[in-house]
Amino acid sequence: MRWNFTIGRRLWFLVGAAVVPTLMLAYCQISHCWEAYQEAKQGPAIVAVATYLSDLTHELQKERGLSAGYIAGGGTAFVDQLKKQRQLTDGVFQRLDSGLDEGVTAGLVEADDLQEIRDWQAKITAARTKVDALHEAGPILKDYTNFIQDNLNRTIACARTTHDGHLIKTLLATEMLALAKEYAGLERARVSQALAAKQADTALRRKIADLQRAQEEHLLHFESLVSPPVLETLQANRKAPHAVRAAEIADSVTSAKDDDRFEIDPTEWWQVQTSRLGDYRKIQLDLGQEIENQANEAAQTQLFRLTMAMIVCGFAILLVGGIGYHTARTIAKRTAALVRAIRKIATGEASLHDRLPVMEGELGEIADSFNQVLTRLDSAGDLCSSSSSSLASAGEELSRNAESVKEDITRSQNQSKEITRDVASMFEGIRGASGSISMVSESLQSASKSIQRLVDDMANATMQANQASKTTQSASEIVSNNSKQIGRLETAATEIGDVVGLIRDIADQTHLLSLNATIEASRAGEAGRGFAVVATEVKQLAQQTSSAIEGIENRIEAIQSATRATTKSTTHVVELFQQILSATDLLAEVTQEQGRSAMTLSEEVRNVVASSNSARGSMDTTVEQTQTINQRLKAIDELLQTAVVGMGQAYVASHDLGELAHTMKEQMDTMLCRHD
């Protein structure tokens, strides 16, 4: 299948080829901006989840410290503060649960994380029960610490889900401050424990010192991530009176000895350290607000970029499409005008004297070239018109000459037909005589073939008669042998009858002996009972022997009867075979005599056939010569007939040539818009 790509279609194809890449580039740019906007749009949601987690960490840190003080004071210290703090922690849990539900829906938080936080809430409730029962503080505080550490790690993981580098940096700074705040909270709990006990052993002091070092390390990381204004705020908080007092109390505990006792009020320590943690919390809240502002600003920036990308891409598509449409339309209109003008000239609606309109560019060059072609066609049309007139005159003259030649050839053809009829009559007479001789010769040949077949059949009959004689002789010998064997069988049966008679005599004597033995046994009484049993068995054996002998005699009698009948039959068969053998010998002699007579007749017929073939050869030669003359006359007649047909066709062709010349002249005049 060939595609008919006109210029207009190709132009529109080029416009499409220019617009499609533009659309693809626009789609890629808009998709990139849309993805960036979606990521930036998730920023506030991430910040909200991180804020919920940070609030929970802060409240749990305070609850952990109050719980440690409550247990150290024997259930009398920090009672009201602990109760109020638990209410604050429960409120944060509720807000976090709701916020995490939204985070799970938005795909920011895994459902497993939400379930884990709910499980931790149940564990915190169990820890509170232990605190109220004044259980050992170590395991309880460890449960609080584990949950706080897990919560901090979850907050850091949530912060890393955003792709904004500046936002990640601020979130990490917030988490570094949260970790420092966590270690400060642990420090508050340990120092509160020491102050409540009014002394601290080496292990406790070492733990407090480790917490202070960890706190300082995280504050250094925090300082490397924040801006100078935030750093100045942190330095100012460190110089505040409550911060200085908290540092003095902590140093006095870590520098004391095992037997030193503290006279510092635990409440004072709790207040100054809580104020210090409050300063950290304020900085944390300020950073949270800054993070939220950054997230919103990033989302707005990406939305603006997305909007601008859509506007620019739309404008580019419209610009490319408009330019392509205008160019294609202009070229298509000029091409259509050129095609219409050429079509009018081709269909005869316009004359070859007309010219295409003058244009600019490549289409103008095409129009100029086509106008030059029209000029040449006009000149060629004049030449063709004059040539057509001359050709029409020549065609008329040729037609008249062809008609005259056709009449002469027709007269010659009639004379040739008369000669052909005379030769045909002579040929029929000669062929009749030759046919009669041929019929006689063919009849004699047929008779010769029949006689030859008869000779062959007689020879076959003689062979078959000899074969039958041999077969009859063999069968007669076989029957004679069978008769001899049957005679021997009859003799053997007679001998078996004699043996059976002897056995019968023995059986009769045995029967008599058994009767005598039975009589003697009855006379002997009990002493002859065993002999009587033997006599009885002998008697039974004699009876069985007599029965068997009777069956054998019957069978021998049957065999003897059958052999006598068979002997008679074989004797009769031998006599029949002798008669058949005599008949087959006579048949063989008769067939041999007939074969010799048939061969003599066949030789005589062959001589007659040879004589008839000689006469037929002479007649065949005459027939062939006459037939050759007749065929040559027919060939001459066919040539004359072909010449007549050819001249007729020449006449028709010359007549058609004249008409074609007139038609061509009229068409050329029409094409050149000439009218007589």
TrEMBL record:
Keyword rRNA processing found: no
Region annotation Disordered: where it falls in the sequence: 395-417
Gene3D superfamilies linked: 6.10.340.10, Methyl-accepting chemotaxis protein
Positions of transmembrane segments: 303-325
HAMP domain location: 329-382
InterPro entries: HAMP_dom (IPR003660), MCPsignal_dom (IPR004089), Nitrate/nitrite_sensing (IPR013587)
Membrane topology reported for the UniProt record: Multi-pass membrane protein
UniProt keyword list: Coiled coil, Membrane, Transducer, Transmembrane, Transmembrane helix
Coiled coil (UniProt feature): 444-471
GO biological process: signal transduction
Record localization: Membrane
Listed Basic and acidic residues bias regions: 397-410
Occurrences of domain Methyl-accepting transducer (ranges): 408-641
GO CC term, one of those recorded: membrane
Record-stated family: Belongs to the methyl-accepting chemotaxis (MCP) protein family.
Protein name: Methyl-accepting chemotaxis protein
Organism in which the protein naturally occurs: Blastopirellula marina
